[in-house]
Amino acid sequence: TKAKTPLPSARPDAVVAPPDFDKAIPAPESALAPPGFRKLKKYIYPYISSTSDVTVGRYPYPSGYSVDAPLSPAGGDQGGNPSLYDIHATVQATLTNIGDRDGAAVVQLYIQFPPNTTDAASGAPVAFPPRVLRAFDKFAVPGGLDKTAGKRKKVVFEVTRRDLSYWSSAQQNWVMPTGTFTFWMGFLSRDLPLTGKF
C-alpha cells in the first residue's frame, strides 16, 4: 500500500506549451457573402448582409479577461494529474470452482468511503453512496472432480488514488478523505462476502 494523503502530488511541469493562435481580427468584408451568392429561403448562412454596423475599436471585455488563470492542480497530463493513477492498495482473493466443469465468474470490487467526511476547504459534509463499484473482471476457473490447485484462481485488483478520491469544487482538485475505507468483494452489490479495511 501507499501512504494516504489528502491531495495528489504537485502538478508536473508542462512538457508541451499550449498552442498560440493568431489573434489578428480579419477585415469585416471577409464576412460578407461572396459576389453572386444565391441564398435559399429558410436557411441560415454564416454571412452578414452589410458592414455598416461594424465598429472599430477596443472591445469592452470584463475585468480580468486578459489575466492568465493559474494552471489547475488537477491537470498535468492526459487524464489529469499523473499522481491520480498511483496504486495505493492491492486487493486480492481466491476464486474457487467447486464443480466438475470449467466455469467463469465476474468478480466485483466495491469501496465504501469513510463516514462523516467534510471538505477541508468549505467545511461542508461530503455525501457518498453506500458503496461505489471501482473494479470488476471476469475470471475463468477450470473444474474437476479432484481437489487440485487448478480449481483456484487468484483475483487481484489494484486501487488507485483516483478510486479513493472525490472531486472538491471548493479546492478544484481530487481529494482523498482521511479515515478508514472499507473494501467489499463479491459477485454483485447484494452478494459481497469478502470485506477488508484500508
Automatic annotation (TrEMBL):
It is an enzyme of class 3 (hydrolase). Keywords: Glycosidase, Hydrolase. It holds the Pfam family Fn3-like. The keyword Hydrolase applies. Residues 105-189 form the Fibronectin type III-like domain. SMART domains: Fn3_like. It catalyses: Hydrolysis of terminal, non-reducing beta-D-glucosyl residues with release of beta-D-glucose. Its EC number is 3.2.1.21. Belongs to the glycosyl hydrolase 3 family. This is beta-glucosidase. It comes from Cryomyces antarcticus.
